[in-house]
Design goal:
Elements lengths: L11 H5 L6 H6 L19 H36 L3 H4 L1 H12 L4 H8 L2 H24 L3 H28 L6 H27 L9 H23 L7 H10 L1 H4 L10 H32 L3 H25 L5 H21 L3 H14 L2 H10 L6 H10 L7 H12 L1 H4 L1 H20 L1 H9 L15 H14 L12
Length: 496
Amino acid sequence: MFTFGKKEEPDLVEVLDQRRPSNVEAVNQQHRKSVSNRGLTGASALTVKQSIFPITLVTILFFLWGFAYGLLDVLNAKFQNSLGITAAKAGGLQGAYFGAYLIGPPTYSGWIVRKFGYRWTFIAGLLIYGVGALMFWPSAVYRSFAGFCGSLFIVGSGLSTLETSANPFIATCGPPRLSEFRLEISQSFQAIGSVMAPLLASRVFFKETDPTDLANVQWTYLGIAAFVVLLAVVFYFAPIPEVTDADMALQAEQCSGLTGYTDKPLRRQYKLFFGVVAQFCYVGAQVGVAAQFIKYSVESAGISDAAGSDRYAIGQGLFAIGRFAAAGLMMIMKPRWVLLLFMTGVMIFIALSMGVKGEGGVAMLSLVLFFESCVFPTIFTLSIRGLGRHTKRGSSWIVAAVSGGALFPSLTGLVADHKGYHISMCVPLIGFAVAFAFPVYLNTVCAKELDGFRESKIGYRDEEGLAGGDVRCEKRRASLVNEEEGMSPAEKEVDY
């Protein structure tokens, strides 16, 4: 695993020996269909204005898989009713979906993004997602639960491939000081998709239908398949700047005076490894809470399943609001502080949810969802800070950690069967506790490195109208230094 895809990563000497393209060149070459991961493109120094369109386009993908994830629980219940299967067996749907994350990102999708770049990874992920959506049709016709699990695994493979490219793309496309803010805003639209999906499912897709009829499921996924294939065509022609590992290595070197960065092999990237473990435990705990929220509400407040679904919709709404709130906080607070603040809130309210009964317990669990909101994207961006030439490979490992969602829900459900849903929250509590150690580590050990990237001026216009990180900006500043020393540029050779 340490060496898979290593040959696609550049050496630092190789990067520094290359001519450095300007960010204007990066914009002019956005229509290129193939870019070497070992070559510089200049895209790591894009300004906010230059990065708005590609980021907006990729944000559509976040909404798309947020919508798919929101449909998962609805379809889970629909399959369970129509096929007459047990709740434990229906949990296999989540296992199939999240299990795909364990396989794809560290292997084929991680290789695609390093070998062919972000554009082709977006296209590949969308096409795989489309194939999985189409596979729901025969699965529904033959009423095959195994077929549904297989279809969902393919959908998960497509979405994990998209996430392998979309998360690092958003994090690296634009000024590095806004990395956490960009991903937080983009993933806020994923949260909106997660809220909209159950509402549309109950009021449009499955309204007044026979509980055993899966026809609407077929047509729903057929529509999704057509949409994602169309989106793949859009991405083929869309202007998308390619940020390579060589670009990220150069950016890390340019920030080294602020961050203390030194190039290290992947096996010594300890912050990344801690981030992978934290993300695995956090996502598992998050999915465990979501999977048991409705049953917890029924047990705690003595309400019906329908009323519990309404409470869950409120919780999902708080989750979406929390992401926008965290993005706003990141404009005035350091992201590592925001992560610590929100993880502290998660720990407090998940513990209270175990002891508080009635509607108060439901409120405590709803607040857990609010404070969960910023954790995934912030762990992601802070974990890949300073990876340099290892950025794409490290990103694929963080995405693979989403597979924790395949383990924790089953463990939570097992405890709930024997001890009740309040006590079952101890399983997510353990996962959150492991994840909580990560922001503590960041704020005590990695503060200088993380703050240095936040202070970087790369991608910002100076008084000369040139963007930091742009080769023209570097030449201009070097020329000014020479003039101050009473030397002409011809008298002093500067290596760019």
